[in-house]
Amino acid sequence: LVSADGSLHPTIFAEMSALAARTGAINLGQGFPDEDGPAEVLEAARAAISGGMNQYPPGRGIPDLLSAVSEHQRRFYGLALDPAAEVLVTAGATEALAATLLALVDGPDDEVVVFEPYYDSYAAVVALAGARLVTVPLRWPDFQPDLDDLRRAVSDRTRVILVNDPHNPTGAVFTAEVRDEVVRLAERHDALIVTDEVYEHLVFDGPHVPIATLPGAYERTLTISSGGKTFSTTGWKIGWVTGPADLISAVLAVKQFLTYVNGSAFQPAIAVGVRLGDEFFRGIARDLRDKRDVLGAGLRAAGFEVSVPAGSYFTVADARVLGATDAAEFCRELPERAGVVAIPLTAFATPEHRSDYATLVRFAACKRVEVLEEAASRLAVLR
Ligand code: PMP
Ligand code: GLN
């Protein structure tokens, strides 16, 4: 009943979080924080519910959140967006990705270029859209794409170049050369750019540079973000897409038949978050950078080789030095051996390329420091 190529298999996040629940292991698999976000944001959701914001909101999103996102794009990136036409609220970045790709690509002659490993929903929505996935490899340990690989992947068949920066699962932040080349290739082959920037505020040596701010990019780029990571509200599923009015209208045309609308009481709360002061945004990046360092030191002490991420929730470690030959098997056994759950990078690769990531494992750093330290001390048994 589901796609023959296996792209709609049960997601690795459900499998690994269930494994953590079953074994009582520390869950450094699925990326969600173990602490609440800003009190003002939580309070605003309670107030919205008490204030009666409990029915269908407008299809594009409530005007207050559309304005808040538009102000945010101006404040952080100098982009001037019309909140009524160039912003669309979605059920998280997940729906934004699905609606965007379903709107922009049309069948097997359209190719979507992605960097591999990729967030798992990318391959699934490309399959749902009936398009062809073309991958550009990111290689251990810095996970920057080779520009020649990128040039070989993009052609006149390319409808969309799908970027994720900062990148899940590797934590890479792409260099200016990579971003520039994406725009140049999109212009040359008349492709669109879809850029998933859900970790935009979790860049450790900022500032974050959205592709949409590069010369020539805005008119062919849809930018996706979400309140989940920035405000530690991953369960609220409030995301957004920004870009030129005609492309946003196309995404809205699909979104209305996926969820119609979403999260009436959470939208005003995320608007409060998006308008928080600079100290909040600097603080979350600093805090996660400290956690990255605690996790990285713990993994090194346990004997892993560790890549140093420049952003996102995640750190990739190589378990080869610990004798691993199959990351999926290593992760299945890890709760039993060490009481920790992590995710094999093979879950983020196409079947033909899984062997390139055979010993790499993703750990989430978005947990309390004492939890990361406890995980590190448990992992020490692997040495
Ligand atoms: N894109 C990336 C790169 C992610 O890591 C995630 C998940 N956390 C999403 C999209 C989905 O975001 P949301 O929870 O807002 O749907
Ligand atoms: N984005 C988070 C991760 O990569 C969670 C994703 C999910 O549960 N679908 O871990």
Automatic annotation (TrEMBL):
On the tree of life, the source organism's domain of life is Bacteria
Q: Where is the Aminotransferase class I/classII large domain?
A: 25-378
Coiled coil, from the record: none
Q: Does the keyword Cell membrane apply?
A: no
Keyword list, A-Z: Aminotransferase, Pyridoxal phosphate, Transferase
Cofactors named for this entry: pyridoxal 5'-phosphate
Question: Does Cell inner membrane count among this protein's keywords?
Answer: no
- Which protein, by its recorded name, is this? Aminotransferase class I/II-fold pyridoxal phosphate-dependent enzyme
Which species does the entry assign this protein to? Microbacterium gallinarum
